[in-house]
Amino acid sequence: MPAEALSPVRRRRLRRNEASKYLKDHHDYNCAPKTLAKLAVIGGGPEMVYAGRFPLYPEDALDDFVRAKMSPRVSSTSELRALQNSKVA
């Protein structure tokens, strides 16, 4: 049996206030704890797990959430518009 099977990688899971701070500190993405709470109700927010009644956000889920919200790198606004238009068509 491989050693990885015996000791799973510990990934931090954050409460809403910590998740909001993580998004700001690591991705420069502002998302208030109240916004995370609203997104938990209506959908569209980062994936979460529950520990009893408390939602916890894994760091990798927060990273995925921000990646989905951000555009790819562009060198001009017209390039961004062209990318957006190509997704619509």
- State the helix count: 5
Whole-number total of structural domains: 1
Low-confidence stretches: none
Total DSSP E strands: 3
What can be said about the biggest beta sheet?
3 strands, antiparallel
Structural class: mainly alpha
Helix content: 55-70%
Average pLDDT taken over every residue:
88
Strand order of the largest sheet: 1-3-2
Distance between the termini: 50 Å
Shape: elongated
- Radius of gyration in whole Å, from Cα? 17 Å
**In percent terms, what proportion of residues is strand?**
5-15%
SSE run = HEHHEEHH
Write the layout of secondary structure elements.
Layout: H1 3-6, E1 13-14, H2 16-27, H3 33-42, E2 49-51, E3 54-58, H4 59-69, H5 77-88
Antiparallel strand pairs: 1-3, 2-3
Protein name: DNA-binding protein
Features:
11% strand, DNA-binding protein, mainly alpha, three-stranded antiparallel β-sheet
Please give a structural write-up.
It comes from Lichenibacterium minor. This is DNA-binding protein. The chain has 89 residues and is mainly alpha-helical. It has one domain (11-88). The protein is built from five helices and three strands. A three-stranded antiparallel β-sheet has the order 1-3-2. The termini are far apart. The mean pLDDT is 88.
Summarize the structure.
The protein is mainly alpha-helical and 89 residues long. It has five helices and three strands. The protein has helices at residues 3-6, 16-27, 33-42, 59-69, 77-88, and strands at 13-14, 49-51, 54-58.
